[in-house]
Amino acid sequence: MKQIKTILLILVITVFYSSCEDSFLSPELETGINADNYFKNDAEIEAGVLNIYDGIQGVNQLQITNNNFNHGVQVEFYLTEMRSDNTETKSNEGEAAQFEFFNVEATNGLVDDYYRSYYNVIFRANLVLENLGTASATKSPVFEGEAKFLRAYSYFNLVRLFGDVPLVDKLISPLDKQTAFTRVASTQIYDLIVSDLQTAISNLDDNGPNDRGSKAAAEGILAKVYLTLGRYSEAQTLLESIMNPSRGFALESNFKDVFYNEGNDEVLFAIGFLPDSRLNSQSFSAEWLNAVGRTSGVNYASLDAKTVLDANGGNRTQYSYREDQAQAGKYQVVKYLPDGDTNLGIAPTSADPRSAGNDWVVLRYADILLMHVEAIMAGGASTTSTNAISSFQKVRDRAGLTTAVTSISEDELLLERRVELAFENHRFFDLLRFGKAQDVFSAYSAANGLGYSSTDLLLPIPQREINIGNGQLSQNPGY
After folding, report:
1. Is position 268 within any domain?
2. Residue ranges of the RagB/SusD domain (predicted)?
């Protein structure tokens, strides 16, 4: 994602009111440019749109070492993969270990970081939407579509992770604590998500780069929303629209190229990063390695995930994990590998692994195909639909698993999603959506001496937010 961080110099009020101290809500003005005299033409509104992507991209915490900054998608793996049976820390360190042991505390700084990051993204989207009146008739629908796509994407993550959350669909004043600290029923959050994505589908096309919102990306995310809500036929219609050959999406012939040949036809939406840039690089992939980032390794593949990949991954396995070269019996995720691997034919993606340029893939065509199977299955235990089998077989054929299938069970679909999308932050959400999380996590916890309980399916509302709201914001059970 190019030229984004510089927008922070222009937009001096990129704060979201419900997640900041009062002293930060009314910063002393240090520039003559502010939201009141900005956003006067298409170029300036375009800058505001790019600033929304910047909020998701987050700050590289290895290059800009201020823990008060938002790190956006770069900390998402803690809240998803490490809170499942897929990954763990290498040495049980600090706050990160709370996720793998299912004992996350309300004071966890990574949870707070993610929560405030995505509400700040929502603020940035609302800021653009508030100023559409100054855009040209040609560009206004596009700006609206991108802003609403990103707002919906943010709320979809928040509602699945935290449950009922504050609903902020417009700019609010610093004193509007009723909106900022009132949790709204998830059904209302989903209503906004669906509406926003429908607008994005109507307003956008597929002609831009895949690190920008598009019609196909909005259709794919909405299909996943519909699957979550049990609206299977609507999901199937959207997915088959994306699958139409005229749309131009396809599986990469080589699994490795999905992650190391950026801008490919398989990726519908990615968060873009640039290598060797202090402002536009990411640090998460360095943190996944040993002695490259600040830590001794986080987001290591669990033995459970390794075993499943060894048995079912086909040619995907070698590009999903590798044994830690410094410590036998520990396994690093390699889908995003900044320092390369000559044995795997992966060249370094940056001169300094701590400033990695690997894009984060949010939605890709293999996910579309497997969701298509899910939509046809429609909550049933299995399917023999030839359309579902065709989609399923395409994913397996690319993995070198060419034995023909004649039926697909729910468990087989979940297994295929796990090995195809391993370490891409889907596993936790998949188990929730299929209604399997309670059983899977209970069994995994018992087998590994962890502390899972049913209340762990939701993260705590950050204690900092509760404190700022003087207790008006209620806490989730179990925290």
Report:
1. no
2. 305-479
